[in-house]
Structure formats: structure tokens, C-alpha cells
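Entry for the shared binder. Reason: the reviewer on the internal report wants the predicted structure included alongside the sequence.
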Amino acid sequence: MIGIVVTGHGHFPSGLLSAIELVAGKPENVAAVDFEGGQSQADLQTALDAAIRGLEGDEVLVLADLVGGTPFNTASTIREQIPGKQVKVLAGINMAGMVEAVFSRAMADFGQLAGMVAEAAHSGIVNLENLEGPGEEPEFEDGL
């Protein structure tokens, strides 16, 4: 099974993983690596390296919060330095993208998964006003 590491600033990664657990149960072969105040880039690199190496399988999708941020940059730097692991790095992860990653990784091949996650994250951003017609309230089914 494709491994997933979510990383980012503060407690965003562990918070996102906590939210996924509420919606879908605790996913297997997933790790969160928080980058907290006071940590150095070297500390983050050590934690990301350990998380990637600790996952089963040889394919790992790293999902970072922000392009150009330290977690994204660090993951991008170490992705080819871990023998035996093929690592892809995406930035801009949100709940919609994380749900896609967790549920689709069993059915998609590694080459397709990154694109599927990016598309889900992008399309998961919706303006409520675009869901409403003139003078009407949008209808929603029960939540997840």
C-alpha cells in the first residue's frame, strides 16, 4: 500500500490526520510530521526521513501544506536521498485532498495518485455563493 506522510507548519499535519480519523477511521501506513516553533530545518529533516523510512512499501506520497515552506522544501530535498523508497511531494494539501489520498491509494497506481490528490484538493475549495441559486438556500445531505 502506498504510504502517506503529511507535513506542515504547527499542528496542521497532526490536526489533518485527526480529522481524517473522525471521517474515515485511522488510516494505515500514514504519518504526520509537524514543524513546530523552535525546531530547526535539520530537526524536520530527521523527522521526515524517519517517517518515510518507517512506512511500509517502497512508494510514499508526501503531502505538504505550502509551496516554498520549510516542510515542502525539506521533503523536496530528501525525496531522492532515501534508498529503496520512491517519493512524490505535493504542496497545498487540504481535507479534500487528504481524503482522496487515503481512499484512492489502494486503487490508483503511484503515478496517478499525485494527480488525483491535487485535483481533489483543488476542487475541494468551493465558494458557498456559487452553490446557491438566486433567492434559494443550497441543499446538503447529512455530513460525513
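Summary line for the report: The CA atoms of residues 49 and 78 lie 7 Å apart.
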